[in-house]
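Section 5.1 Outputs to date
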Amino acid sequence: MQEIQSGIYIESTYPGVTVGAIATSNGVILVDAPLRTEDVRSWLAMVHNKFRASTNRVLVNLDAHPDRTLGARSMDCTIIAHQKTAQVFRSRPSVFKGQNAESGSEWETFDDIVGTRWAVPDITFISRIYLNWGAMEVILEHHPGPAPGSIWVLIPEAGVIFIGDTVMANQPPFLTYADIPTWIDSLDVLLSSFPGLMLVGGRDGLLTYDHVRAQRQHLKIILKGLERLARRNASPEAVENLIPGLLSDMEFPTELAEQYTLRYRHGLFQYYTRNYRPTEALNE
């Protein structure tokens, strides 16, 4: 557990996501859940030992991705998420069945995840919600792009912002439910309206504004490639040709190449079909 500002902690060693804890005088605000049940237990034990007596806690889901939400039920607390994230859960079966098993997500590397029961958010909002549990005000804001219900957690007094999958350093973005132009708009907002903050990514821990600019440029390259295919009326399978160039822009361990290729293959195919071949998407 790393203290990045007074009373604000992150943990980046769990598979899937970086989780956070914000200590207040009335309890602990937790940001995202570890993927595996044993990691949830470990994280809650650390939180309890660090903050001792407090049993009041609330969990914030930054979006609906399984990597950050499958462990939510084991967190055993009130869950806050965007209204569109809650809608995703209401449309899913109550038990996780391992759909999209070749999406390049972290959960796919753990067999025991299938069969986990989802936890539907208890509190939802549309644009912004303020949590006043103590001296530090915590603001949850809707910033879509990576997913319809993507949100950020801002702690103005501490100069910290949790931005989820809005920025992912040296790994492919998740595109299946993304809206790339809206995502680029959210990155522009981050650069123009939130300068000089400590950025906490949902997968990478602490990030820099150079990472934000790199993410923006990478998304523009993806969008340009997809639009070229659309102008040629290419089949969805043609997105495969974009993958080598996109991966070459990143530095990552060679053992992740297969997973990242899968992530691009699945995400690009779904994005292209949904946005440029909607008739085929409806017929699937």
